[in-house]
Amino acid sequence: MPKLIIDGTEHDVPDGITLIQACEIVGVEIPRFCFHERLSIAGNCRMCLVEVVGMPKPVASCAMSVNDLRPNRDGTPPTINTKSEVTRRAQEGTLEFLLVNHPLDCPICDQGGECDLQDQAMATGFDAGRFKDNKRAVEDKYLGPLIKTSMTRCIHCTRCVRFMTEVAGVPELGLIGRGEDAEITTYLEHGLHSNLSANVVDLCPVGALTSKPYAFQARPWELSKVPSIDVMDAVGSSIRVDFRGKEVLRILPRINDAVNEEWISDKARHVWDGLRTQRLDRPYVRKDGKLTPCTWDEALTAIADRVKTTSGAKFGAIAGDLAAAEEMFALKTLAEQLGSANVDCRQGGAKFDPALGRATYLFNTTIGGIEEADAILLVGCDPQVEAPVLNARIRKRWKQLEGRLPVGLIGTDVNLTYPSRGLARARKPWRTWPAANTTFAQALKDASKPMVILGQAAFARPDGYEILAVGAKIVTESGAIAEGWNGFNVLHTAAARVAGLDLGFVPGEKGLGTADMIAAAGKGDLDILYLLGADEIDMSALGETFVIYQGSHGDKGAHRADVILPGAAYTEKEGTYANTEGRVQMTARAIFPPGEAREDWTILKALSEALGKPLPFATLTELRGKMYAAAPQLAQLDTLEKADSGPIVKFASHKAKPGKDPFGLSIGDYYLSNPIARASAIMASVSAMRADAGKATGTDG
């Protein structure tokens, strides 16, 4: 390990790191604008200049490796001075140049209070500049409905350019022109077409790029903040919810290297306005064909009267994509007490069975494990839409291997932001693997750590079990299951799915699944259907069935319901979720549900009392105690227990005969895929921009 003397103290530092990283390790803060740990080195802001004894002038610490420094003439380790007069004057001079053209608009800038330029001007700048020239003005650019631009503030650090090119994989931003005419812009002058684009707002060290929906909503010191997790997809990204009073005003990412690093999807970040619109804030009962407001007692009594007229066999329950484990456990327990085995959390119809083993429905490699893979086969999925943050991790691995990561795709051709080999849209390569595609089959077999990722489009079909079996066969034959490595991965799209499967929220003996319940309702064989936030089913096929909808938004389920029970959104309750890799995490309550809405488990508790079948718990602590007893893995917060791969090996021997239909896509419109997103005006505007792709111009506002 190289030795360095930093500010008079000798330190051992790791090989290959830069000076700025070495200083960070030993607790010395170096100012910077262009440098970012997860982006390539640009070295163009010069704010990180430090004095290296023996060198004729200060060096950019972000671009100088510790291995490039020579010992001093007396044999002592290289000496770096970060607080010397030379360093101070170099940093002050750099900051003075950066401020030459910067407008003095801090009072009206949304970045105020969170601005690196403000902070470093206070720490390393001085009170007056020596340059009196007129400031340069730059025309603002159109980057879509999520990003507000004030390009006169831009200091050309190129963080946004490097992020879009390297991490998002959509090289639409760039630096054009030279000298005073240099500008950051989109090459084609339209909105950014990446599901990760809004991360550039966090990266911008000045106020050039700010959040357009959040503009002038609040100052950061006015907001209260709680750590939580995102439920817009099954990745479970770590987020921070910022709120004031009764309103959530923004959502930001938290650093979690095991899951999302420090990125979140655009939908996770900007769905917050949907939390306040189209909300269900009071119970409703349908009278004379019209939903009318009522009291909680009237709603629960209406349900109780209807339940008394039927049997448990004619009662069904479907859990939606955003349901937390607590309410699913409460609903499952209530259904059991009513004598019903008709429960299902697989709203999309995916053929997962907890009885086959937990490994058959998890992302077993783990999200972090993607960075060890050396061959990937994607089947029936589009991770760039279904899990943008996970897709960025695959792209990161592709970059680490310098483009030598073989990626195969069976299904609809999609833009993955990295090269992939389309094995075919048809099902032949899947049905006759490996004979139909010996080249990629051999690449999988030759890889030391191959991965197979199966998406929801592959499972939400009548032959879902057959596809699962073929996937297990490919994994075992390619050697993807070995000591310390399980290459069988399921990419879920719903935050509620894994916890629901862990709880066994699937049909019991002789029970009906989602498709069967819908069919039975249409025939009149199902009297009552309980929808726990389930909106992604065909409501028109439910016939005359009595529908109870419990959820937070007036979406498809609420329009069809006979009784509406208003619940809480994910920012309004403490709920347990398990992400696609099985990592158990919890949301935190930022605000309370609006009006008369209640936390979902308390609604089910009150309903059980009205039905005369009280649930065996009175508090959230008691509920979780019983839930943990039923599913012990849900008690292991933020830890990953490797699932036994034995069931996968065993299932691989099943003689599968999948059908001939091609794989489709599981998500039609990424921005409108759940009730909260469909209630969001921001998501609607982004969806409209994507639908009108290519028509936006630089004159759009």
Automatic annotation (TrEMBL):
4Fe-4S His(Cys)3-ligated-type domain ranges (all copies): 86-125
UniProt-listed GO biological process terms: ATP synthesis coupled electron transport
Cofactor section: [2Fe-2S] cluster; [4Fe-4S] cluster
Enzyme Commission number(s) of this protein: 7.1.1.-
Keyword flag Iron: yes
Domain 4Fe-4S Mo/W bis-MGD-type: 223-279
Catalytic activity: a quinone + NADH + 5 H(+)(in) = a quinol + NAD(+) + 4 H(+)(out)
Keywords annotated in UniProt: 2Fe-2S, 4Fe-4S, Iron, Iron-sulfur, Metal-binding, NAD, Quinone, Translocase
GO molecular function: 2 iron, 2 sulfur cluster binding; 4 iron, 4 sulfur cluster binding; metal ion binding; NADH dehydrogenase (ubiquinone) activity; oxidoreductase activity, acting on NAD(P)H; quinone binding
Pfam families found in the cross-reference section: Fer2_4, Fer4_NDSU1, Fer4_Nqo3, Molybdopterin, NADH-G_4Fe-4S_3, NADH_dhqG_C
Cofactor info, note text: Binds 1 [2Fe-2S] cluster per subunit.
Classification via SMART domains: NADH-G_4Fe-4S_3
Enzyme's top EC category: translocase
GO CC field: membrane
InterPro entries cross-referenced by the UniProt entry: 2Fe-2S_ferredoxin-like_sf (IPR036010), 2Fe-2S_ferredoxin-type (IPR001041), Mopterin_OxRdtase (IPR006656), Mopterin_OxRdtase_4Fe-4S_dom (IPR006963), NADH_UbQ_OxRdtase_75kDa_su_CS (IPR000283), NADH_UbQ_OxRdtase_ferredoxin (IPR054351), NADH_UbQ_OxRdtase_Gsu (IPR010228), NADH_UbQ_OxRdtase_Gsu_4Fe4S-bd (IPR019574)
Xref: NCBIfam families: NuoG
PANTHER family: NADH-UBIQUINONE OXIDOREDUCTASE 75 KDA SUBUNIT, MITOCHONDRIAL, RESPIRATORY NITRATE REDUCTASE
Its job: NDH-1 shuttles electrons from NADH, via FMN and iron-sulfur (Fe-S) centers, to quinones in the respiratory chain. Couples the redox reaction to proton translocation (for every two electrons transferred, four hydrogen ions are translocated across the cytoplasmic membrane), and thus conserves the redox energy in a proton gradient.
Family, per entry: Belongs to the complex I 75 kDa subunit family.
Protein's name according to its UniProt entry: NADH-quinone oxidoreductase
Species of the source: Methyloceanibacter methanicus
